[in-house]
TrEMBL record, chain B:
Coiled coil: none annotated. It comes from Neovison vison (American mink). One of its GO terms (cellular component) is TRAPP complex. It is found in: Cytoplasm, Perinuclear region. This is Trafficking protein particle complex subunit 2-like protein. Keywords: ER-Golgi transport, Transport.
Length: 654, 109
């Protein structure tokens, strides 16, 4: 046995491999060895467990493979022993081949003996079961299509095919399906369901490229049956890192999540990643990325221009020259898929359609907007829970691109910096953002020769923005001194604002009430009037001396608030104070006068706040109109330039 | 043939100061005696010219049909233009565009 096993490079007398077997085995071995980081094929260096120096197959992957052969455990154990792995302690090529041969024998019903390897045996079969704990192999109902179009891979060495679970059992189909390069003498072709996925992370680029184009040619696009979401679970970490460094072509980084029968389905991690990228290009997740920006970005992916053009065509569903978040994600996904060897689909797959993505988006979108709003609303830590939520989401995002930790940490830093910096620049950023967004949406509108339905989406965005603006205000309010005013409207206003903060740009949240308030509120707290006037937000107001720090940010929020209920706030403020005054009068002298003073101070404070808000309002409105004007001018310039271009070009349009 | 028609288009453009969006030309007379195609021209606001050559053996297409065809062409063209990766002047490779054109032609024949 030992001698037999010591047949060296597998071509010795004891081990007779037919051509097909040799091919299959070497590929298998390459896969397993790839796991070890030293595969015979030029495997990518990302393998986690590298066995330095030796060309060996990692025990773990080999074990998985063997298990996939669906042989009883003890048989596998026997095989392992026989092939000599235990002798050398690892799976060298020889051992591996022997093991494979033995597996084939076992599957054919022959006893596991070393003599069997001398026989002409069919290829071993490895089935991936859905329930396989190894997610890597969890790739069941692959493309149904492939079934019929296997012949593609005739020329390719790769033997991976995706078979349905049912097919695994149907040997009759195997002959037709075994495009294996190996001589069709072996009926039980290789049914290795994308085992490749198991090794996806470690697979060498060549292997990747081969199977993908051929198999993918098959109706990849077809919305594969449900098949397990396991594929989706495969953390596209590598993918994230791949995409992250667009300048570096790291094809080996298979975004495993793409492979599972649904290559066009975007997983959560991928989505998060795309959203991050989107936001790096365009801070507002509900707005668009213009064509030129997107072009620059996607060009970094080093795909050819026609391909990029094609991808754009597919993903820009409304043909407006700009990409919304779902469109962007679809485009990104297509690019990633293409880079990993998937041919581009004929049409936009259903899972990449904007509506589909949009529906699937709400949560991430919300998170994004949360992000934005919080980063902007840094000043008032009135909603500690929100912050914590945000941090959680930051962490979530940070978790995913594990390899690309630098990036995420960059993001984090950016966020932090943004948060800090935003305190003082909130309002400036806000109005700009707000005016820019409608501007950009209008821009894309006017860019087209004919108006498109984009107006629909832009209005919705604007509505969302407005909606976002109105509610949030309350928190800052608390102001009016009263620590915890329980004025009804104010409370109500405040509450919707809290959830509303989720929507896009939010005015600096709860900028706190005018400066004097804190001091007054403190005094008020002493006087026992709070209960009536207290407002939820006011807690924050009280505790946050940041009010003083961000007096500037207050006006912007205030104006918005004002819009919402200009008189109400004023009147309410008056009322509570008056009501405070009322009961106060009945109180003893000291508190009485204190309250009165308070209320008068409050009134003054309110009035000054009102004035400030109005001024801020005017400023913002002016800014807005100026920007619009600039936009129009730019448009005209562009049209003029286009005309010039046309004139200069030789007339060969058609 | 197309080039001659383009020349005529240029001629007409420079002649008229306004209304670039015109659709004109029945070139029956200009062409070789053997050929009897009608050539229609269409110019957009950005001076992009569309030239359509129709075989006259077809029952003559009504002017309205021609106009609608040009409109569709124009709209598809702007869609193609929206693609930032498309360089004006390149051969148009958009499938949507091609399919639209094909359907139009089929419809006519």
């Amino acid at each position: 046995m030992e001698a037999a096993a010591g047949g060296g490079c597998g071509s010795g007398p004891p081990l007779l491999l037919s051509e097909g077997e040799q091919q299959c085995y070497s590929e298998l071995f390459a896969r397993c060895a790839g796991a070890a980081g030293g595969g015979p094929v030029s495997g990518p260096p990302e393998a986690g467990r590298a066995v330095p120096g030796a060309v060996t197959a990692a025990a773990g992957t080999v074990a998985d493979l063997f298990r996939a052969s669906q042989l009883p455990a003890e048989t596998l154990h026997q095989i392992t022993e026989l092939c000599g792995a235990k002798r050398v302690g690892y799976f060298g090529p020889t051992q591996f081949y022997i093991a494979l041969k033995l597996i084939a024998a076992a599957q054919s019903g022959l006893p596991v003996r070393i003599e069997n390897i001398k026989c002409e045996l069919p290829l071993p079969r490895f089935m991936m079961s859905k329930t396989d704990a190894e997610i890597r192999f969890g790739n069941p109902a692959e493309l149904h299509g492939p079934k019929a179009q296997i012949p593609y891979s005739v020329t390719e060495k790769n033997t991976f095919k995706r078979m349905d679970d049912e097919d695994k059992q149907q040997e009759t189909q195997s002959p037709t399906m075994s495009p294996l390069a190996s001589p069709p003498s072996s009926p039980p072709h290789y049914q290795r369901v994308p085992l490749s996925h198991g090794y996806s992370k470690l697979r060498s680029s060549t292997e990747q490229m081969h199977p993908a184009p051929y198999e993918a040619r098959q109706p990849l696009v077809q919305p594969e049956g449900p098949s397990s979401g396991a594929p989706g679970a495969k953390p596209p970490r590598h993918q994230a890192s791949l995409i992250r460094s667009f300048s570096v072509e790291r094809e080996p980084h298979d975004n495993s999540s793409n492979y599972p029968e649904e290559p066009w389905r975007i997983t959560e991690e991928q989505r998060e990643y795309y959203i991050n990228q989107f936001r790096s290009l365009q801070p507002d997740p509900s707005s668009f990325i213009s064509g030129s920006v997107a072009k620059n970005f996607f060009t970094k992916s080093k795909l050819s221009i026609p391909e990029l053009s094609y991808i754009w065509e597919l993903s820009d569903a409304d043909c407006d020259g700009a990409l919304t978040l779902p469109e962007f994600c679809a485009a990104f996904h297509l690019i990633v898929a293409r880079k990993n060897g998937y041919p581009l689909p004929e049409g936009l797959p259903p899972t990449l359609q904007p509506e589909y993505l949009q529906a699937a988006f709400p949560k991430p979108k919300r998170e994004c907007t949360l992000f934005d709003s919080y980063s902007e609303s840094m000043p008032a830590n009135q909603q500690p829970r929100d912050l914590s939520r945000m941090e959680l989401s930051i962490k979530d995002m940070a978790d995913f691109p594990v390899p690309a930790q630098d990036v995420t940490s960059d993001d984090k830093q950016e966020q932090n910096k943004a948060r800090l910096a935003l305190k003082s620049t909130v309002d400036e950023a806000l109005p700009k953002d707000m005016s820019e967004d409608p501007a950009t949406s209008k821009d894309s509108n006017s860019l087209k020769a004919r108006p498109r339905s984009r107006s629909y989406s832009s209005t919705s965005i604007e509505e969302a923005m407005k909606r976002g603006e109105d509610p949030p205000t309350p928190p800052p309010r608390p102001q009016k001194t009263h620590s915890r005013a329980s004025s009804l409207d104010l409370n109500k206003v405040f509450q919707p604002s809290v959830p509303a903060t989720k929507s896009g740009l939010l005015p600096p949240p709860p900028a706190l009430p005018p400066r004097p308030c804190p001091s007054q509120s403190e005094q008020a707290s002493e006087a026992e009037i709070h209960p009536q006037l207290n407002r939820a937000p006011s807690q924050a107001a009280d505790s946050s001396p940041t009010k003083k720090d961000t007096p500037y940010s207050q006006p912007p929020s205030k104006p918005i608030r004002r819009k919402f209920r200009p008189e109400n706030s004023a009147t309410e403020n008056q009322e509570p104070s008056s009501t405070v005054g009322g009961p106060a009068s009945t109180a003893t002298g000291k508190p009485h006068t204190a309250v009165q003073k308070q209320s008068s101070k409050q009134k003054k404070a309110i009035q000054t706040a009102i004035r400030k808000n109005k001024e801020a309002n005017a400023v913002l409105a002016r800014l807005n109109s100026e920007l619009q004007q600039q936009l129009k001018e730019v448009h005209q310039e562009r049209i003029a330039l286009e005309n010039q271009l046309e004139q200069l070009r030789p007339v060969t349009v058609l | 043939m197309v080039h001659t028609s383009l020349d005529v288009v240029d001629e007409k453009i420079s002649a008229m100061g306004k209304a670039l969006v015109d659709q004109r030309e029945l070139y029956l007379g200009l062409l070789y005696p053997t050929e009897d195609h009608k050539v229609y021209g269409y110019v957009t606001n950005s001076k992009v010219k569309f030239v359509m050559v129709v075989d006259s053996s077809n029952t003559a297409l009504r002017d309205n049909e021609i106009r609608s065809m040009f409109r569709k062409l124009h709209s598809s063209y702007t869609d193609v233009m929206c693609n930032p990766f498309y360089n004006p002047g390149d051969r148009i490779q958009s499938r949507a565009f091609d399919s639209m054109v094909t359907s139009m032609m089929v419809q006519v024949c």
